[in-house]
Inverse folding.
């Protein structure tokens, strides 16, 4: 997968992409990325990328020309037609389903804004997707873009090492993940549930499913509205009431 991030602060992207799983994904040739300072594409001598909004108002707005030119340059070098993603608080709320959708793409381009907002022509005529990571305001789109990229890259084949890891994550199944325990079996008097030490894989699988349902009902009951409960699972949850 190719990933391009248009930003005025490429150093913010480099730190995340050079660490942990992102670094591993590049070493395995699962992804190829570049952080592009779109200020370099401004067609004025001062490389100005923002201006006052028509009609007045507070703040500055990103001009369309530098962003259009940067995306156009990326497309000319690409063999694919990339998904061009605008990180924007007005966008579609990002979730695991969207991450799985984007993980099927060969080329993603992220546009990270600053200032008061974008010239509307960027939104209307350039991007394919608008994504928000929540109902709150950030200084720019870089942190949000990194969150989206991280959630997408970990779904690519062999990136995590264990194929089951991504499948069992919270939200991947539609439910929150079950509790995890490791050694020692007894820590300060707090013991690992006996079923997990039993070696009985069928019972362990059943316990984990029950715990996942219980945790979801207690912490995110809204997720159960669209979850296809089996008769057995419904009975498990009824015992909680």
């Amino acid at each position: 997968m190719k990933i391009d991030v248009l930003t005025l602060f490429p150093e913010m992207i480099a730190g995340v992409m050079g660490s942990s799983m992102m670094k591993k994904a590049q070493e395995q040739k699962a992804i190829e990325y570049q952080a592009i300072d779109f200020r370099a594409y401004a067609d004025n001598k001062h490389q100005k990328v923002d201006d006052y909004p028509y009609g007045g108002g507070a703040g500055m707005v990103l001009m369309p020309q530098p962003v259009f030119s940067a995306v156009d340059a990326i497309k000319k070098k690409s063999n694919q037609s990339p998904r061009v993603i605008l990180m924007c608080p007005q966008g579609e709320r990002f979730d695991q389903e969207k991450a799985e959708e984007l993980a099927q793409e060969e080329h993603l381009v992220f546009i990270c804004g600053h200032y008061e907002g974008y010239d509307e022509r960027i939104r209307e005529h350039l991007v394919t997707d608008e994504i928000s990571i929540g109902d709150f305001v950030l200084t720019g789109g870089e942190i949000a873009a990194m969150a989206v990229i991280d959630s997408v890259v970990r779904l690519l084949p062999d990136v995590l090492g264990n194929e089951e890891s991504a499948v069992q994550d919270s939200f991947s199944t539609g439910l929150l993940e079950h509790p995890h325990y490791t050694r020692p079996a007894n820590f300060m008097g707090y013991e690992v549930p006996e079923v997990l030490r039993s070696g009985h894989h069928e019972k362990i699988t059943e316990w984990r499913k029950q715990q996942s349902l219980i945790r979801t009902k207690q912490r995110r009951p809204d997720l159960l509205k669209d979850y296809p409960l089996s008769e057995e699972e419904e009975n498990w949850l009824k015992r909680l009431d």
